[in-house]
Amino acid sequence: MSFKKKIIALSVWLSRIIVGATFTFSGFVKAVDPLGFCYKIQDYLIEFDMTAFFPTALPLAILLSVAEFLLGIGILLGLYRKWTTIGVLLFMVFFTPLTLWIALANPVEDCGCFGDAFIISNWATFYKNVVLLAAAILLVIFRHRMVPLFSPKTAWIAALFCVLFGFGFALYNSYTLPVFDFRAYKIGADIPRLMEVDPEEGDVYETVFIYRKDGKQQTFSEENYPWNDSTWTFVDMETRLIKEGVKPAIEDFAVEMLMPDSLSGQLLPAGDITQQILSDSSYTFLMIAYDLEEMHLKYLGRFSALAEYASDKGYSFYCLTSSSASVIDTWSREHKASFSFAHADERMLKTMIRSNPGLLLLKNGVILHEWDDRDVPSLEQLPPRLEEASFARVENTSARDRRTLAVIILLFIVPLVLIKVIDRTFYTKKYK
Fold first, then answer.
1. What percent of the chain has pLDDT over 70?
2. Lowest CB count within 10 Å: 2, 28, 77, 103, which one?
3. Residue 111 lies in a domain
4. What is the 3-state secondary structure (H, E, C) of the chain?
5. pLDDT digits over 372-419, tens only?
6. What is the average pLDDT across 351-374?
7. pLDDT grade, residue 432 (50/70/90)?
8. In the structure, what pLDDT confidence band is assigned to residue 348 with cuts at 50, 70 and 90?
9. Do 230 and 260 have their domain in common?
10. What is the pLDDT of residues 190-207, one digit of tens each?
11. Same domain for 305 and 385
12. pLDDT of residue 427
């Protein structure tokens, strides 16, 4: 083999690995949390003033994440090389200019290309896409050099399995909590600690002083401003960010209590209870319902029963929502709810749990457990003392995640191996 052919072969192999692995990983982590990707798409729709398309955000999130996953797997396995490589190229031709605009305009701080699993800057996303675009062009030109893993007799079976697996995985994570939790508000998260950052690693600011002399303005630092020179006239003082530092993992956790007015009965703000929640040494249940009007009501009775249980046992129970006071009042009367309501930011609530409603259990600001509405424990499942419950202690989520990942890999790899065995046993032939 000539040196030129070796370089081409190596370039195709590297491009195949880079493109295939990146697309597979990106599609997989977005399919882990379709609702998170849906919220990111909604952020873009807001920027483009296209909020009327909000109902399409979740189907689009599922479709894009699965398409990305399938293109990546198709490249790695060599399935339908012509159409797979063209699909990747079209994907990159569309998204590379889009990410350039995002990097320049910065409509959102994080493009969401790797979900919450791996966050990179908008410029880093654009540079990544430039590399992927170049690799995609190379793969389209030299796709005949990509050796397929399956023969034409079984390639369609492998492709069909990948499609079913991709959509099944994404849909499962849409109707339950994500199998992996990459958010800051995951089980075991110490919210107060995650709200802090080392002062030495934080943003660096400088204060500048603006003075005028002889009709001209000049800027001075704190070290050299002419505070004792009467020939200069003070104009203004500004604080400027000169170096962006590390941001705390949680910046937006804030809760304001709502209480009915003694005369009108109307719900009114009754003070910030953020620190009260985070410092409670007992147990605190947080029912998360970012929008009461869109909330699923099938299991509402479980939340009501749990609120009564908490009241009887001396635990705190709050329903956190971003709905307005008038909506809360109307909804409470309609559904005869007796929750203690508190107001919080919608984005924060959507980040806390991917369920409307959902439930969190906290102690000293540490998240002990999370449930979507279907899994909220009934009274029969609750012990006389909450300390006796297994979910009232912090779970080792790392070990659980490793087991879950191993199961998912086996569920995906084993059928492909069986298809390959059938392929080699009955249909093996040279294929170019």
1. 97
2. 2
3. yes
4. CCHHHHHHHHHHHHHHHHHHHHHHHHHHHHHHCHHHHHHHHHHHHHHCCCHHHHHHHHHHHHHHHHHHHHHHHHHHHCCCHHHHHHHHHHHHHHHHHHHHHHHHHCCCCCCCCCCCCCCCCHHHHHHHHHHHHHHHHHHHHCHHHCCCCCCHHHHHHHHHHHHHHHHHHHHHHHHCCCCCCCCCCCCCCEHHHHCCCCHHHCCEEEEEEEEEECCEEEEECCCCCCCCCCCCEEEEEEEEEEECCCCCCCCCCCCEEEEECCCCCCEEEEEECHHHHHCCCCEEEEEECCCHHHCCCCCHHHHHHHHHHHHHHCCEEEEEECCCHHHHHHHHHHHCCCCCEEECCHHHHHHHCCCCCEEEEEECCEEEEEEEHHHCCCHHHCCCCHHHCHHHCCCCHHHHHHHHHHHHHHHHHHHHHHHHHHHHHHCCCCCC
5. 999 999 888 888 888 888 888 887 888 889 999 999 999 999 999 999
6. 93
7. very low
8. very high
9. no
10. 999 999 887 776 677 888
11. yes
12. 61
Residue 401 falls inside a structural domain:
no
206 and 300 in a single domain? The answer is no
Q: Using a cut of 0.70, tell me whether the model's pTM lies above it.
A: yes
